[in-house]
Each structure stands twice: as C-alpha cells, then as structure tokens.
User: Fold these one by one.
Assistant:
Number 1:
Amino acid sequence: MIKLVGTGVWVLAITLASVYVSLKMAATPKDDAEAAARAAALEFVTGYVTTVPVLGEGGVKGYLMTRLAYKANKELAEKQVVPLPQMITDELYTLLLGNRLIDVADTGSFDLDVFRTTVRDGLNKRFGAEVIDEVFVEQIDYLTTAGIAHPSPRQGVTIARGSVPAESGD
C-alpha cells in the first residue's frame, strides 16, 4: 500500500513539475525590438497584373500574366525617383522577357522560391538599396495565342498560384 501511495505522489510531482515548466516557457515570448521596428518600417505594395509576351519562332507564342505583391521599406520606397509599381513592372519585363526566367515549355522545372528571390534581388539591385523585403506571388498564368484566338473553357496554364497576406490597415 505504501508503494502505491509513493508511486502516486511521484507521478503527481512529475506531472506538476512538467506543467509548471511548460507554462513558464510558453508564458512570455521574448520581445525582439529590432524585428518589431523592421516590421513597422515595411509597407505592403500590391502590384499590377503584368502581361509579358513570350516570343518564339516567327512572333509571339503566348502571354505570361503575373500578379505579384511586395513588402517594401517605406522610407526607401519614398526616396525613389521612379514610382515603385512602374519600376517593378519594368524589372519583371527584364526578368521574364530578357532573362527568360520562366520556361513555359517546361513548367515542371519552375521553382517558385528561386523566382521570388530573383525578383527581389533584381529589384533591390536596380534600386541600389534593400527596398523590397519580400515578394508574394498571387498568380502566374500562361495563355497561348491560339487559346486567345479560339477561347475554350480551359485556354491557359496556371504556372503558380500563391497566397498574399491581407493588407494591414495602418
């Protein structure tokens, strides 16, 4: 009987200690003032739908349609001579048409993380500062010229679809 009571007390002590330790560790997260200040310095920029022609033998084969959104540094974005949305559209043309970042013939090889990083790094290089912090892909579609001329219920190919966080009301 004493062993049974001793075992019960032991289990009770271990249970109470583990609950205490788990509550103590989860109770107050450490405030990271630097991360909070950085988040406060960012603004959400909704991009335009950008349509980039895909060139092939003898002309335009189709159109790549992208809709991206960005988190940008407010102060650095305001200092830019060219407005942010227009600069972003120009950089997308450079990356998608000039560098052929997306191969529409082989959509299986498309890496969304590499695309986001390349767009962010290209824009920041162009701005000369770390203006763009994060790139969000809402959707990337490819429409063929044949699909545009003779529309059908399924005329395009969705290359990527992502989620964009809701714009925070400041």
Number 2:
Amino acid sequence: MYAPKHPGPRVGSATVYLIVGLPGAGKTTRAKELETSASALRLTPDEWQIALFGERNPSDKRDLVEGKLVQLGMRAAELGTNVVFDFGFWGKDERSALRWIAGTVGARSQVVYLPIDHEEQRRRVTNRFATTPAQTWHMSDGELEQWRAQFQAPDDEELLGSQIPPVPPEHTTWSEWASQRWPSLPDQYAPTAAISRNSTEP
C-alpha cells in the first residue's frame, strides 16, 4: 500500500505534547505544569465534558468533544503555539495518529508518559472523588481493572520520538484513521500541504 511521506516538523516549530496515562496518574497536574513552563494551550477533555454535560458524562459524546479539541489544538500548533493534549491516549495508534498529524502541520510531538500502579491509582481516584466531586466522576474497581487491561503503555522508542509506524492496512493515512477514531475530526491533514508550505520558506 502507498504510504505518503511524512514531512516532519519545521525548524522553530511548536511542540504538541501527548499526555499518556491511566486515571489518577497525574496527567492533568503534569499538563498544567507544561501549560506554564512551555507556554502551551492545554486541552483537557474532562473539563469540557463537565462544562457541557455536568455529572451525566455521556460516553457517546466523549469522542466528539476530543475530536474538536484535536482540530483546535492542531490549528494552534500550525500557528506556532505549543499544545498539551491531556487525553490519556491509552492506545498506541491514537498516539501515532496525532504524532503524524502534528508533523503535517509543521509541529514537533512529544509523548509524556505517567505510569502508576493499581493501589496508588485506587487511592488517588478515591481521594479525588471525595475531595473534588465536581471535577471528576466515580470509578469502580472493575472499571479501573478493565481500563488497565486495555492500556498500551508506550515503549522507550516511542518516548524518544522514534519513527511513526505505518498506518493500519485498511487506511490510507493516519489522518483518515483519526477521523474514524474521532468522528468530529475532519480528514483534512495532507503531507503534501505541509511539504508545499516548507518549500516556500526561505
């Protein structure tokens, strides 16, 4: 299958940070640190879910919210603003897709992984729900175990910014894959557009 060449970031480009971890790992705390230290636009879906839907937290809206945040964040990165996606990113394909898209808009990408063991996770999520119930939702032991089983931790190569793997064979580009993962995200990212922009730079 034909795989479009990835253009890679431009010199002096923005950085897109992908915060990876399970609930309770400290993702939003780390994202807020980067928001300040890297002068980055922080996009945390939980905050948007709560603002839009309150305690209902409808699961069928989550991917739609995330897709629009990806679109917003990538546009900001294209304009030169650092961006922090505080999503969790449990799957490697999710991270690969957004690393690829970041390259097409001329940005760098960095995977930031926050590991946590089960006991500490249980303690943190219980304490968070008890102290700040308006900022989170109840999570059962069964849910935590299920999510941990689904989680694909990044390896050392991914953390070091290794080459992005090929898109799954049923897709043409990672942009197409991402538009199916996040239905509100348009399939609009083409490597040729980034290459064209690069060619006009002095």
Number 3:
Amino acid sequence: MKTGVRHRAREAALQILYHWEIGRVPPAEAAASHRQIDQDGPPLTGPGREFAESLALGTAAQAPTIDPLIEQHAEHWRLDRMAAIDRLILRLAVYEFLYCPETPRTVVIDEAVELARTYSERDAVRFVNGVLDGIHRALASGAAGPVPGARV
C-alpha cells in the first residue's frame, strides 16, 4: 500500500471530490470541510494539502472538459451509469494528465489503479486501467484533439 505524501494527497483529493459530488456542496466548501475531518495518520499539511486541494478544485472546475474524454474511452459506459467513486478516480487522473504535465502519465495511471484497488470493487481496477490507458494513448498520439487550457 502506498503511503507517500502525494499518494495521500490524491486520496484526500478523491475524498474532497466525493463530498462535492455526492454531498452536492461547492468544491471549496468540500475542501474546507475536509480539513476539519479527523484523518487516519498524521494530518496532511503544507505542500501535500495544497496539492490535494489543487487537484480536487481543478478536477471539479474542469469536469465539463474531462467528462467527454472519459465517455469516449469508456466503451459502453455513460458517466452517469458508472460507480461514483470510479467516475471520480477517472476524473482526477484525467485532470492530472491534462493539467499537471510534470507528473508522468504512467505514474498517474498507477496511482489511479491503486485508488481503485483501495476504494472500489475488484473489477474497477481493470476498468480504470483500461479507460486511462486509452486516454493516455489518445493524448500521446494527438487523437484526443486539442483540450482547452491543457498543458499536455
């Protein structure tokens, strides 16, 4: 099990996004309330907290840009039919693909698979890996087309 600061930040970002989507609260409010929750292990502070909130707020803001990419590569699955946690893991990873080019895409995929392994069903690991691999290949080849504001 991964326990590095950036992995913990991705877990926190996923929790913030879950609160945003399921709790239907504004992203900034979800991030603020997450800071108040008693977490396992030492609290996420400094750059780790900043990274988590940046990922969560960026993912929420860019969901309208991210979602079509996911639907295009999730064969026979509409976004609204996916398990919420799987949809959020995919959004988080695709956000990182598009807007955090300093993180290698293979690392993003590995982290997303680990999140799926921890927080979702066993079949989600293959699903998340397959969708993200397809998006990764499309972005690398230019087949995904231009994405507004992306730094790929």
